[in-house]
Design a protein that fits this description.
This protein is an alpha+beta fold. It has helices at residues 24-40, 54-64, 117-123, and strands at residues 8-11, 48-53, 82-83, 88-89, 91-92, 95-100, 133-134, 141-142, 152-158, 162-177, 182-195, 201-205. The longest helix has 17 residues, at 24-40.
């Protein structure tokens, strides 16, 4: 990524022992900090997203909304930005907010399972996409999806963070399958995704690692 700034990291304000001690107001502040980081790297303003665990997503409504930080009143009769009744928050500081059950929570993980790579992975920066790192102890390849997810609160991205290339156009053909005694339609395509602009992605942590 020659000449391209790296990813972004925002530490949630305050001293925390885990997700449970983070407040809704601190989450709102963290989103604005991420917005500032994106702006400083010329990340486009549109199509920005943040994914959070359900517990943190709910704090926007339980706490931030109660403090008047995320609820906008639309006098034209349009859709409100957040609704306690419907249990959703649409956007904070230009980021569309999503809840998910699929954020990594295991800390440092090592695909070769030799029990030695965690410190090596931490020293190497934690996450690599697009090339294999070598475990300094065993020489084994570390999976490209290994990630330093310690103290993780959520992730942020803009659509330019990833690029997808289509290697083969979608194709469709009919084949006769003996086991089914019938002719079935079969379609296939080949695509691949990779990091395009690291500066368009970021993570939130409740404490530095």
């Amino acid at each position: 990524y020659t000449g391209e700034p790296g990813g972004n990291e925002v530490i949630v304000t305050g001293t925390h022992s885990g997700l449970s001690t983070i407040t809704g107001a601190q989450l709102v502040e963290a989103v604005f900090d991420m917005g500032d980081a994106f702006f400083g790297k010329d990340v486009p303003d549109e199509m920005k997203h943040i994914a959070l665990p359900v517990t943190e997503y709910s704090k926007f409504l339980k706490e931030a909304a109660a403090a008047g930080l995320v609820v906008d009143v639309d006098l034209q009769g349009g859709e409100a930005n957040a609704s306690v009744a419907r249990g959703y928050i649409k956007m904070v500081n230009g980021f569309m907010i999503h809840k998910t059950n699929h954020l990594p929570t295991a800390g440092l993980n090592d695909s070769d399972s030799d029990g030695l790579a965690q410190d090596n992975l931490a020293a190497a920066g934690g996450v690599t996409l697009g090339s294999h790192k070598l475990d300094g102890a065993s020489g084994a390849k570390i999976n490209v999806y290994d990630i330093d997810s310690r103290n993780l609160v959520g992730v942020a991205w803009q659509q330019q963070a990833l690029g997808t290339a289509m290697f083969q156009e979608p194709k469709f053909e009919a084949k006769y399958f003996m086991e089914y005694q019938a002719e079935l339609g079969v379609s296939s395509m080949v695509t691949g995704s990779q990091v395009l602009r690291p500066s368009c992605a970021g993570i939130f942590r409740w404490a530095a690692v």
